[in-house]
Amino acid sequence: MSYTLYAEPGNFRAFKILIAAEYNGVTMNIPDFKLNESNKKADFLAISPAGKVPALKTKDGAIFESNAIARFIARLRNDTNLYGTTFFESSQVDQWIDFCSHNIELPATIWFYPVLGYMAENKPATAKAKTDLANALKILNNHLLTRTYLVGNNMTLADITIATTLVYPFKFVCDPTYRKQFPNVMRWFDTCVNQPQYEAVIGKVVLATAEHGANTGSALPPPPKGNNKKEKKEKKEKQPKQEKPKEEKKPKEEKKPKQQEEEEPAPPPKKKEDHIFKKMDASDPSPFIMDAWKRCYSNCNEDYNAAMTEFWNTIDLNGWSIWRGDYQYNDELAMLFMTSNLIGGFIQRTDEIRKWLFGTMSIRGEPTAGKMKVSCYYLIRGQDIQPLIDCNDDAAYYTWTKMDTNDAKQKENLLNYWKADVDDILDGEKCLDSR
Q: Has this prediction a pTM greater than 0.85?
């Protein structure tokens, strides 16, 4: 999938679109664009009649307004769950996007726009903006007290939209004292912006050590991927004009070997070796189709007994195996939301082998320090758990036991874990979280 996004460099409203594209594997072509010039041309006005950016060009036509574009990109794939996993969660995503537009973006821009030189500073308006933003962040802070993400148990467009709206305020105007009022927001923000999908778009976010004054900031982040090669090429064309005279004045024999070395052709890049599971699919294909099982599980309408009957009827136990993992450091688990972060991070770091992996991770016990336990059951390609450990360093902190699929009690326990919800009983203890 490939689309063309029109936006000037550093437009924070484009960040959410580009990050959603990173999560969904969508290619974005970003042509050179100059505000107050490119957006006044007739061909662009045909795409965005009001001349506003960002705007998106698709094979079906154009879309303008950043939230509409972000929603479009987020909905291109269902398996990434950027729009939630249920209709209710989708409505919650919309709820937070609207909250961001009215309660966060408006006061935030009034505060940081003067820093970037987008508007003149109005001190009474800035003072009110600081208060209004603080009120919005208090609501966000209270909501995140017991949650890792804004909606459900995964990153959604709600997180992406609000986090990217807060990048410039936190970078330019919200000093440490201001941010200190909202510890849950800062913990969540740090989780978001350190994801590789965010870093690919906005780079590393450096938080403000003091409030910047008017016209002291720059909105230019690292250039989009699509423009990097062009810029490097232009630089290489200009450099010889400046360096040629210097080279003519240094005809030393000592440099000849160096020139010869430079003229030697570079070794061809090594082809990336196929993943062991990809090789296995080619050399020893399995009749079990993981995507079909995932659809069966997701669409079973909570009739997990019927789903598991289908699973046992179709599973190829020669090509796949099931493993139980038990966390080795349960005594160090102090708070439920931090433990939920632990299993959420584990799941994200298995993305490389998601095509060959299925399972759930659960927290059981009591939501107090030292009384929580983390366990998981994973179906994996082949007969070894090592590829999961190689993919995800966190897996080394678990004790892995291969399931005996002939044991009726173990099969019942697998069903209990794969269908678990909060307050269900797992191994005699109450389930506190399951994903």
A: no
